Automatic annotation (TrEMBL):
<feature type="region of interest" description="Disordered">
    <location>
        <begin position="153"/>
        <end position="177"/>
    </location>
</feature>
<protein>
    <submittedName>
        <fullName>Uncharacterized protein</fullName>
    </submittedName>
</protein>
<feature type="region of interest" description="Disordered">
    <location>
        <begin position="306"/>
        <end position="337"/>
    </location>
</feature>
<feature type="compositionally biased region" description="Basic and acidic residues">
    <location>
        <begin position="316"/>
        <end position="335"/>
    </location>
</feature>
Length: 422
């Protein structure tokens, strides 16, 4: 039996019973408009039954009005198969890309990233975002952003697609996190599909680099994001306005041209016996992130849905200039334990690598509140937070080894502050 996808339909002929290896390999070469990486996936092809292929999308039927450039699934039974999806984005990236999503993906449980690829391994497999400066066809609205997902299963998965158990070549079934080899195969497939599509669409940009390794972002696996060079600007001894002492830094590992994130915190363990505990309202944590193009729009919209962009909440009637570091006119404010970890964020916009880019930095003061308690921040302490936030932004943008410098960011406009404790 052979199965062929025709504009969304599945055609089935013949019967099963073995002897299908050659036909299945030939099918793999042509499936999904020939976009799949044959050499990477060949080992998954089975002989016992014919492959089952379902596919549709505008690259297969150009006259279609579909949100998908390509939706394709190829299976050889017993958990062996590949599923890919590609679409021209006209709205936000359908993945979380806020600062903490980059630094602590999967809710802090960790996932895999492929350095040099803008994306992560998520619920539906490896995902990535790529540019198509020449424009992508198949949608009414023009777009230059390609989104691709790829999920490869090798027979070790359970019925729900979660792998085995050890986080090396198996995975944690409860979280759905794949093994390292499975994640790498997913990324390589996604990159191969993206490169095939951008070439066919005459995007005018070079191919993405095919990843040769993935990194586990879970800190229990060696904390690979600690002490990155791009985050060295976060230093308690040279960053004015923050608690003095030893700081520990964390950065995302994507090595992307489209986004980056760094965070630092005052290290209580390393400072024990050396430095006094910071006083209330002293800054003990900072973070900074940047997003370009569609990623910038997606991140900003994500924060906006929570009311965490300039122009919302208690700050809605204030202009950025009112956050002047020397202001003595600020009134005291109340901070509730129910507002989460209080932070003051500062937003800016630049042009980086020719693309509109949003930057967001945040400073987190030391505050100790029990459930139901409320603290009072004085006008002077509030002004100090503003001073520190602006200092952090300037230091981040000017850091020689930081992402903004590598992305050649310029023409920066400060957009305003957000008090994230209301």
């Amino acid at each position: 039996m052979a199965v062929v996808g025709i504009a969304g339909a599945v055609l089935v002929t013949g019967d099963s019973g073995g002897g299908h290896l050659a036909a299945n390999r030939a099918q793999l070469r042509k499936a999904c408009d020939g976009t799949l990486p044959y050499r990477d996936l060949e080992r998954l092809v089975r002989d016992e039954r014919p492959g089952e292929l379902a596919q549709h999308g505008t690259v297969l039927a150009p006259g279609q009005q579909s949100r998908s450039l390509l939706d394709c699934s190829l299976s050889w039974g017993d958990g062996h198969g590949v599923t890919v999806h590609a679409e021209a984005l006209v709205s936000d990236v359908p993945q979380p890309v806020r600062t903490r999503d980059l630094l602590e993906p999967a809710g802090g449980h960790g996932t895999f990233v492929a350095p040099g690829t803008t994306g992560q391994y998520g619920k539906w497999g490896a995902w990535l975002v790529a540019d198509c400066l020449g424009g992508l066809g198949g949608r009414v609205r023009p777009t230059t952003d390609l989104y691709v997902t790829a999920r490869v299963t090798d027979g070790t998965d359970g019925a729900d697609g979660a792998d085995g158990a050890d986080g090396t070549d198996g995975a944690t079934a409860a979280s759905g996190k794949p093994g390292r080899a499975t994640a790498l195969l997913g990324f390589r497939t996604a990159v191969h599909v993206a490169n095939a599509l951008t070439k066919a669409q005459h995007c005018g940009s070079g191919p993405l680099m095919t990843p040769t390794a993935v990194l586990d972002t879970d800190e229990t696996h060696g904390a690979p994001g600690r002490g990155l060079r791009k985050c060295e600007w976060i230093d308690g001894s040279s960053l004015p306005g923050v608690a003095s002492g030893t700081w520990t830094t964390l950065g995302d590992l994507q090595e992307s041209t489209g986004l980056s994130a760094c965070a630092g915190e005052w290290d209580a363990e390393k400072n024990a016996g050396e430095r006094p505990r910071p006083k209330e309202w002293q800054i003990t944590e900072v973070d900074a992130a940047s997003w370009s193009g569609v990623l910038g729009r997606s991140a900003y919209n994500s924060y906006e849905r929570e009311g965490h962009v300039p122009g919302w909440g208690a700050q809605q009637d204030k202009r950025p200039s009112e956050a002047d570091a020397g202001s003595d006119t600020r009134q005291e404010d109340r901070v509730s334990a129910y507002s989460g970890r209080p932070q003051l964020a500062l937003w800016a916009r630049s042009v980086c690598g020719g693309r509109t880019t949003y930057h967001r930095v945040a400073v987190f003061p030391e505050i100790r509140l029990e459930d139901g308690e409320t603290a009072v921040i004085s006008g002077k302490d509030r002004a100090r937070l503003s001073t520190a936030a602006r200092t952090v932004l300037d230091r981040y943008l000017d850091a020689e080894d930081g992402w903004p410098a590598s992305a050649d960011c310029r023409d920066t406009t400060v957009l305003g502050e957000v008090e994230q404790w209301h």
